[in-house]
User: Fold this.
Amino acid sequence: MLINSAVYDDGRMVAEPALDAVSEALEATQTGFVWIALRDPTDDELYRLQHELALPPLAVEDARKGEQRPKLEEYGDMLFATMHLLEQGPEGLEVGEVHVFVGARFIVSVRLRSAQGFLGVRDRAEREPELLRQGPGFVFYALMDAVVDRYFPLIDAIEAELEQLEATMFQPRPDRQDVVQRLFGLKQRLATLRHAVTPALEVASKLHGGRVPAACKTMQDYFRDVYDHLVRIQASIDAARETIIAATQVNLTLVTIDESLVTKRLAAWAAIFAASTALAGIWGMNFEAMPELKWAYGYPMALGAIVLVSGALYWRFKRLKWL
Assistant:
């Protein structure tokens, strides 16, 4: 579906051509460029655009199929980039994609399986005509910057939930298994985020310093800023991952300690009842030779002995903190 199609000249929008008229609109201006945004396009829309802008067939095929890792490919003077769009869903992070074609006089963004739009990026670019005059390179930077900035709330949410779990981890709680499940859920979300960020770092590193594609040469400082953002996110991911591993080990240790305490309590009560059972068994044999058998106070004495021994054992285990 076509979201927007606009021709910009000298930082101002001068036309909004249909897909079939893009090449004609570019011919009408010698210095302008076209910015086209598509969302879940049909094969017909992609092939029409391929014909109008002479897009590489292999890149168009990647954009049509999707399921690509973040990457940057060069086809002569044209760039083809893929980035992941992440958003929090009911069962974890949902992964969409945006494919970007960058040429000398055009930029095309193809968004797949994502509700995240880029109208804010277009508004920002149109408010800065002095930068929009830089051409498709600035638009590519603005799109990439918007994608990367949307990663920050995701890592912040993971860190906040992790801090909440850490704060309550040492409190007595019966749902240790639930804590472990939540930790593994956080680890899966981190893995999804890392799969988006790590390849994007490689993409951003190719857009500043050294050999830089012609379309991005004038925007190297801006792409360096995006690279710095990605480095910060990568560092946060690594730190959160180490914290999750440590928290999981601590939680499993606490589970073992809880089980050990239960075992100690059971062993202590078993010892108390074993002593009572042994004494009751001795006096329950009813031998004639037992001197206390016919004594009037024999029965109370036996009960007193059982209570005394049991009380002594209870006091001892209480001091040892087994009970």
